[in-house]
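Continuing the batch. This is chain 6 of the set; chains 1 through 5 are on the previous pages. Same settings as before, nothing changed between runs. Recording input and output for traceability.
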Amino acid sequence: MSIQLERIFPHLQNTGKTIWTTVTNYGYRLYTLNMLKSLSVWGLDRTMIILCLDSKSATLFERLGYRVVITDESLERFCAWNTKGYDRICYFKLEWIYRLLSLDRNVLLIDGDIVFLKNPAEDVQKWETGTNDVWIQNDSQNDQNVQNLCTGYMLIRSNHNTISLYDCVSDAGIRKYETCAFDNNDQTYFNKYIKPYIQYHPLPLEYYPNGKMYYENAVRLRNNATLIHFNWVHGHMKMAKMKEHKLWLLTEDEEI
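Output for chain 6:
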């Protein structure tokens, strides 16, 4: 087991049914800090539990006062999409979701390349009491196309079905993930092995746009969007896009 349950338990006190969480490492820290700063406007950054894949990032976020769970992995470097190391990060996302669901907690998973423009809490509260198993961002360019849903922002409700489907630690679960490694990783895992067996609700692109949708419709979407997910670009082009759209929020002093 690479995520030790005893490291999770202390952070479950004084939390609600839904755990707000993100996964990061030292190479990805600035994106995570930028996402957290966007949530800090409403004090929501302090609701987060951060899964760190290395001791260096864990030390940093603990020093800043965040709740941190560290894995037994030691993966410090920035790993671009579908490169070696990225597959491990995505596996940890799946395992982290599975562990939290198994503890009877819903999971709101937020990738670090997201910037919030509006308070998401009201929507999250509605989803918590809804009938769907999963609310999830759409990675297509129209709301009717649900072929490729985006695992960078989603709420998963804990129930027997979702726990079973997110079991990526059994031999069968590991074999499933191996078919997805370097093929969009956890996102393919969701669309192939989870989506067909659950009730899910794709989030409207007008309010939860993916990167491509936003880059091509920024003027219209900027006023409506709850968040912007800066995907659909590789490596540190994410940061360049955030700066281009005036959504890189960190000052030089905060880029630690």
